[in-house]
Amino acid sequence: MLAVIATSYSLTHLGVLIRGEMPGKVVAMPTSEVYSDPDLAWQLLRLPKHHLDSGIQAQLYTGPEDTLLLFRPHVTSGFLHSLSESLRANASIWKRLTGLQILPKQVMVACDSFDEDCQSNIENIRLIKGTLLEASVSTAAESGQSLLGFVYSSGFHRQLGGTIPLSPDLDLIAKQTDLLMDKNLAMALLAQAGFPVAKTHPFARDTFSPSQLDSLDDGKYVFKPAGGAAGLGLFPKGTKGAVLATIKGHLQKLELDGTLPQKFQLQEHLSGPVWGAMGLILPEKKWKVLQVHRQEIDAQGRFTGGRWCEPYQAQRMEFAEKLFAKLASLDKLGYLGLIELDLIGEKIIEVNPRITASSPICHLLSLEKKLQSHIGNSFRIRQLDINTQVQFPRQADKLKLAEQLIQETHNQSGTLILPQGINPIGLSRVVIVNDREDSRYQQQFLAELRRL
Questions:
Q1: What pLDDT, on a 0 to 100 scale, did the predictor assign at position 299?
Q2: Sign of dihedral through CA atoms 362, 368, 371, 375?
Q3: Which of 26, 70, 115, 444 has its CA 20 to 30 A from that of 273?
């Protein structure tokens, strides 16, 4: 009887890389896996959970031998043509400015349904029915390519385990990822271990009574679903807190509407800017802080931008290193892999055991030497800004004008404007390299883009 050999894996700044020794990789970002409450998307948005996925923001992580997977609920031929133009335009921008090739060898669009005329071939784009998670795993199994597990949840692990033999280590990583993505469990674990955390009160829908709030101290609080992300269900929105009377009224409304989450928490409201520390927890209690950044939170409580620069990181690195050293030594956790801590002041407010909206910072920093080979040996990354709310034009002729505008901005200032992916149907995420401290060239670019 032949022994079954577990598939190899490695821990990277993008997540868990499965079969990293294989040529080419499958790049798919099923961000819906960050919602550990499977009902939340339907309760609050009336959307199936997998409809939260797009994947276009993952193009910057691809190479010329890779397969990029995206999701669209219903695909039309018009969408496919726009997608083809968007992918080409972004690859052209990156090639000219950085020398890097991010046009994937193959693009696959997972979907629930598609128009009949979509059967006509568009170069290097194929359709596959199913969710983004299902399509990514089946594609990796069929192609033999490596696979990036951006969010190594139990859902991802189960899907993957049905196709290839997996190391027992990955089962533990998946379970601990689930634990830390549950905001109630994560904050309780860190509090018990002596981490500096915002005071957090956990609740469950099945046992909740408004009278439970009577024992809480006066002050302002923030309501969060325990299984949510990206500000979904946050109350009040933005960075404000609410007094208990207002919180009680909100919870009563959720109960009446039937939208009270399975698990939720009330967290003390802390004033001040939000910042994040991202790093890796490695075997043998080793660890590495990858980057420290400032966050911009919009009126809906979502991450809409961030900034990395050496002075800001240096001010907070010692404290971040203490946190990661303590995490790595925490025997009861056992987690390995990518993790980000969100903080206000020196108190942790959230734990994200996965890729986040700030992950392009890690990725660009890892590419600095490659950028030097194209731009010049004197090139250094001094500042990185992320903007998740950029609207690119959808018409092909105007998209070419946007490309020219990006080139002109670089010629004028040396600033690199690098889309993570150009979304043909919505807002795009962009990384800006070496802008001025006042974001002058980003603001100038955005103003001119709006005039196209």
A1: 66
A2: positive
A3: 444
Q: How far is the C-alpha of 378 from the C-alpha of 362, rounded, in Å? A: 20
Task: Determine the Cα–Cα distance for residues 239 and 97; give it in Å rounded to an integer.
Answer: 36
DSSP-based three-state secondary structure for 42: helix
Q: Which residue has the tokens 């919870």?
A: 251
Domain 361-450 has CATH 2.60.120: no
Domain extent listing, the chain: 9-170, 199-268, 272-359, 361-450
CA atoms within 13 A on the CB side of 244: 11
Calculate helix-pair angle for 368-375, 77-98, nearest 10 degrees.
70
pLDDT score of 339 more than 50: yes
Query: End-to-end distance of the chain based on CA atoms, in angstroms?
Result: 66
Pairing status of strand 146-149 against strand 15-18: antiparallel
pLDDT, one tens digit per residue, over 49-95 is 899 899 999 999 999 999 999 999 999 999 999 999 999 999 999 99
Contacts of 408 (CB under 8 A, 6+ apart): none
Write the class of the CATH domain 199-268.
alpha beta
Percent of the chain residues topping a pLDDT of 70:
97
Determine the Cα–Cα distance for residues 190 and 352; give it in Å rounded to an integer. 13
Of 215, 367, 264, the closest CA to residue 43 belongs to 264
Q: Which of 65-79, 237-251, 317-331 has the lowest mean pLDDT?
A: 237-251
CB 239 within 8 A of CB 21: no
Q: Which residues on neighbouring strands pair with residue 306, listed in sequence order?
A: 295, 386
Report the candidate in 223, 258, 265, 229 with the shortest Cα–Cα distance to residue 243: 223
3 state SS of 35: coil
Name residues whose C-beta falls within 8 Å of residue 1's C-beta, 6 or more positions apart in sequence. Answer: none
Take residue 366 and report the two structure tokens written for it: 């890892």
Residue pLDDT, tens place only, 255-312: 999 899 999 999 999 999 999 999 999 999 999 999 999 998 776 666 678 999 999 9
* Nearest residue to 90 via CA among 53, 124, 57: 57
**Is the distance from CB of 193 to CB of 167 less than 8 angstroms?**
no
| Contact (CB, 8 A) for 35 and 41 | yes
Q: What is the 3-state secondary structure (H, E, C) of 312-364?
A: HHHHHHHHHHHHHHHHHCCCCCCCCEEEEEEEECCEEEEEECCCCCCHHHHHH
Three-state SS for 392-421 is: CCCCHHHHHHHHHHHHHHHHHHCCEEEEEE
Report the C-alpha gap between 274 and 295 in whole angstroms. 5
* Domain 272-359 fold: D-amino Acid Aminotransferase; Chain A, domain 1 (3.30.470)
Tokens (6 digits) for 206: 């099945």
